[in-house]
Amino acid sequence: MTFSIADLFAQHSTDKFDLHEQHLNNQMVRVLKTIGYDRHYKRALGQYLYDQEGVEYLDLLSGFGVFAVGRNHPTVINALKETLTLELPNLVQLDVSVLSGLLAQEILKTTPEHLNKMFFCNSGTEAVEAAIKFARYTTKREKIVFCEHGYHGLTLGSLSITGEEIFREGFGPLLPGCISVPFNDLAALEKALSNKDVAAFIVEPIQGKGVNLPDDNYLPEVERLCKQYGALFVADEVQTGIGRTGKFWAIEHWNVKPDMICMAKALSGGFVPVGGVAMTQKIMDTVYNRMDRAVVHGSTFSKNNMAMAAGLATLHVIQTEKLVENSAKVGTDIINSLNQMTGKYEFLKEVRGKGMMIAIEFKSPKSLTLKAAWAMLEAANKGLFCQMITIPLFKEYHILTQVAGHGMNVVKLLPPLNLTQKDHDYIVSSFDKVIADTHQIPGSIWDLGKNLASHALKNKKG
Question: What does the alpha-carbon distance between residue 341 and residue 339 come to, in Å, rounded to a whole number?
Answer without folding.
Answer: 5
